[in-house]
Amino acid sequence: MVRHFLRDDDLSPAEQAEILDLAEAMKKDRYGYRPYEGPKTVAVLFDKQSTRTRVSFAVGIGDLGGLPLIIDGGTSQLGRGEPIEDTARVLTRQVAAIVWRTSGQDRIEAMASASEIPVVNALTDSFHPCQVLADLQTIREHKGALTGLTLAYFGDGANNMAHSYLLGGATAGMHIRICAPGGYHPDPATVADAAAIAAATGGSVAVFDDPAAAARDADVLATDTWVSMGQEGKDERIAAFTPYQVNADRLADAAPGAIVLHCLPAYRGLEISADVLDGAQSVVWDEAENRLHAQKALLHWLDAR
Ligand code: CP
Ligand code: NVA
């Protein structure tokens, strides 16, 4: 039975831990794993812009002995309305896996429904699960464990990163706080899904309005852009989010030695102050590098199913 990675809770807690262990091993032995030797090809499609995801998948597929086929969705027939399911059927016959960055979660679900090879979510409007795998790897590196740690996320509580922190963090047994202004709280269904996972893993999930309360004694502070891809031009968002900036005040509220995550690209002076992003407690460059290792581990794990 082919496995897909469309949202963070497609992995059980044990499976997530297995992939994070593999990511750690692969980081130590970068060229020691060659499941795509042949080479097998992986199709990596982008309907939205990308730097980190594009580079880390292309480099990682190469490291695994495979051939990355990077496709700009707009120049493919998908961009002219060819059915997603037909695209999946064509790719199934020729490549080893499909990685796709697109808008609606329904689109990647449609791709998976007609695919006989693994489909990986490289960001949708709803979830960014590959990013959160890399974030979990980064937290483990710096804190030694995940279970029982508190991660507080500030800003747009209704975006892909907030939803993936809820599901991925709960799967890891973490306490996840999403702090956002009214009108930008996470999807209640995702909060409920994460709460159900947390009940089994010993974690918890909570939604906050008050930034100081959310940051209090947190082990990890995280944020993301206030204007996700596709939301450009909605300037009223900036005013709503201004009190939710991750800055020295929030770091002072957090636990001593707290680390700071940002999936990047970052907008200094908006969702995060420059001194914090570029400061000693920021681990964002490790986080960006870990996209490579976490995704290689994910692809290797999916290939072995
Ligand atoms: N963090 C992230 O996904 O970056 P890109 O948009 O550059 O791929
Ligand atoms: N929430 C952001 C993440 C970018 C990596 C977006 O969707 O644009």
TrEMBL record:
GO terms for cellular component: cytoplasm. Its EC number is 2.1.3.3. Residues 3-141 form the Aspartate/ornithine carbamoyltransferase carbamoyl-P binding domain. L-ornithine binds at residues 160, 224, 228-229. It catalyses: carbamoyl phosphate + L-ornithine = L-citrulline + phosphate + H(+). This is Ornithine carbamoyltransferase. Keywords: Cytoplasm, Transferase.
